[in-house]
């Protein structure tokens, strides 16, 4: 039964609705800047910048932060268009939307990722 | 009497304390990003980017915003280290701390200022 549902999810005629991601052309500069303005979120972006990361393996700087804090940060980053959050096997995979970000705001993510602190 | 006081203010032995500006080496990336993440503050930065502006001539996008909103935005931008806000004659002059910002976060302000919307 579990495998049956997974097969259905990969079938175009039965798409299971997944999390919303804004289209690349709709990214808003101030939303991007706000999403990056929190130290914990910036840390998540740095972790994902070098390659896609399993969401369960992505850790906040503060190990005592509740799970809801992590979900909230993921949501802000996804809704701003910074992270893609997709189902992968039984988990979820986080990746940086660097191509979309670069096209819309050239040089911005490079400058942010290169910055110290 | 008015001129006497102005003369005193320009005398090093009688410094009149002015607004706080963080030193260039203390600028914090997330504070900068937060300060730039508000559309009204970003608009102020764009106005000042092409040259110093008399604070009284610096207008918010929303003409109905109360004066306190403008002062608050100026404070956030100054405390983050983005704007210098200095007395000039009877008014105050706002300028972008581009050199300090560039030294600390190379390419960041260029990317933000070049971005559309």
Characterize the structure shown.
- The structure is a homodimer of 117-residue chains.
- Chain A is α+β, with helices and mostly antiparallel strands and 117 residues long.
- Chain A has six helices and three strands; from the N terminus they run H-H-H-E-H-E-E-H-H.
- Chain A has helices at 2-9, 29-36, 39-49, 67-80, 98-104, 108-114, and strands at residues 53-54, 83-88, 91-96.
- Chain A has a three-stranded antiparallel sheet.
- The N and C termini of chain A lie far apart (48 Å).
- Chains A and B meet through helix 2 and helix 6 of A and helix 2 and helix 6 of B.
List keywords for this structure.
homodimer; 117 residues; alpha+beta; 3-stranded antiparallel β-sheet; 6 helices; globular
General form of chain A: globular
What's the total count of β strands of chain A?
A: 3
Quaternary structure type: homodimer
Could you describe the largest sheet of chain A, including whether it forms a barrel? 3 strands, antiparallel
Mean pLDDT across every amino acid position of chain A: 87
Q: Which range does the strand content of chain A fall in?
A: 5-15%
Could you give a quick summary of the protein structure above?
The structure is a homodimer of 117-residue chains. Chain A is an alpha+beta fold.
Topology:
The structure is a homodimer of 117-residue chains.
Chain A: H1 2-9, H2 29-36, H3 39-49, E1 53-54, H4 67-80, E2 83-88, E3 91-96, H5 98-104, H6 108-114
Antiparallel strand pairs in A: 1-3, 2-3
């Amino acid at each position: 039964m579990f495998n049956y549902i997974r097969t259905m999810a990969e079938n175009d005629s039965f798409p299971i609705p997944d999390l919303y991601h804004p289209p690349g052309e709709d990214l808003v500069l101030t939303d991007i800047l706000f999403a990056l303005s929190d130290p914990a979120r910036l840390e998540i972006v740095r972790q994902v910048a070098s390659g896609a990361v399993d969401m369960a393996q992505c850790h906040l700087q503060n190990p005592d932060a509740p799970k809801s804090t992590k979900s909230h940060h993921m949501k802000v980053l996804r809704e701003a268009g910074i992270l893609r959050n997709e189902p992968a096997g039984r988990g979820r995979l986080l990746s940086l939307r660097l191509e979309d970000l670069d096209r819309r705001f050239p040089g911005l993510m490079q400058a942010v990722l290169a910055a110290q602190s």
